[in-house]
Amino acid sequence: LDRFLDRASATKIMTKVLGIKIESNAKPSFTDSQNHWATPYIAAAEKAGIVKGEGNGIFNPSGKVTRAAMATMLVNAYKLQSTANHNEQVRFEDLKGHWGEKHANILIDLKISNGTENGWQPNRFITRAEAAQLTAKTDMLQQNLNDEKEITTATSYEDLNLTVASKITAQEIDSFIAKYHSDSPLVGHGQDFINAQNQYGVSAHYLAAHAILESGYGKSEIAYQKHNLFGLRAYDGDPFKYAKYLPSYGDSIAYNANYVRERYLEESGMYYNGSTLTGMNVKYASDKGWAKKIAGIMERIKPFRVEDYTYAKKLPKNPETLDVDALSNEIPYKMYADGSSSNVVSSATYYQVPYPFNLKIKSRPDVAVEENKVGTVTPGTTIFIYREDPNGWVEFSFEANGEKYWTLKNKLSM
Question: Shortest CA distance to 127 belongs to which of 60, 54, 70?
Fold first, then answer.
C-alpha cells in the first residue's frame, strides 16, 4: 500500500468519519470517476461540498493529496472557518499567497496542525499516517466544541447544573469538615461523595454541602445512629422512628444522589423544576432559603469560579434505581445471650442514648441533651450486657435486668 494518500482514499475517509450516507449507484459529475472503486464516495463528497475537481471536469482520483489539499478538505468537511481565531500575522512564508493559505491557517489557529523549521510545506504530499492524525484531531476538536455548547455557564452555585462534575477533591471536603467540626463522623468520608458523583451523576460538591446542612456535619442523632445524612423518610410525626437505616455513610450518599438525580434533576422526574439548587428548592424544601443555604456552604468549601465550569460536561445518569422504600427503618442490633456480662477495662463514659453529641435527641423525647451523659464507669467493674449497635455501643446494666445504659465496646473486655 502506497504510504502517500491518494484523492480517492482521502474522500472515502472523509465520508466515513462524517457519517455521510453513501448511495451505491450514485455518480459524481467528474468524467474520470464514473467507474472507479471510490465512485459512490466521490459522488457523496461532491454533493456534500467536501471535494472539488481539478478543472475540466476531472477529479483525478489516483492523484496524490498535498498538505494544502488535505487542509482544504478538513476545513470544508467540518466547516471550521467560523471557529478559527482570525490572525492576520503571516505564520509561514511558504504559505504566503498560496491557494491553500486560508485553510492551512485555520488548522494552525485551531492547533490541529503545526509546521516545521522548514515551513508548512503546503505542496508536499501527505502520508496516510499524517492524514489519519489530522482527521482524528479535527474530529476530536469538533466533538469538544459541540459538547461545550450544551453547557450554559453558571454565575454562582445557585444556578449551577448539579449534573455536571464538580471541581472538588475528597481531600478538600474532608479538610473543610475537619476545620469546623474535627469530631464530625463525616471526616474521612470525602471520597464517598466523589464516588456517588461518579456512579450516580450528581455533583459531589453539592452532596457534601447538603449532607452538612441536613445532618449538622453528620452529628444529628438520625445521621449518627442510622447513617441517614439526608433525612430519607424522616417524617415529622416521629422522624427518628420513620427515618431509613443505611449500613454506611457511603450508602446514604449514594441513595440520596440516585434519588435526587431521578426525581429532581431529570426533565422526566416527578419534581423537576430545573437541574439547579434553585430548581430543586421549588419541591424539595418548604424553606424558600434552602438553595441559598446549600450554595453558601458550597462557597465556603470552595469559592465559585466561572472558569471551573465553563467547559464542564454533564454526567451520565445511572440507569439503576436504588429503592429507598425497600430499606428498613430498624437499626440492626447484635443481641447477646441472656445473662451475658463483661468487665470494664478502661474508664468509660456511659449514656442513656448511644449518641455522643449535643444535638436534639429524637429517639427519646424524654431525654434532654444535657441529661444524656450519665457518668463514668471505673475499670474493673462487671456489667451485664444486652445488645450492640452498628457504631460499637453496648447496652448494659449494673445489675441483672436493671436500668439500662450505653457505653462504647472498646472500653470493655470483649
Answer: 70
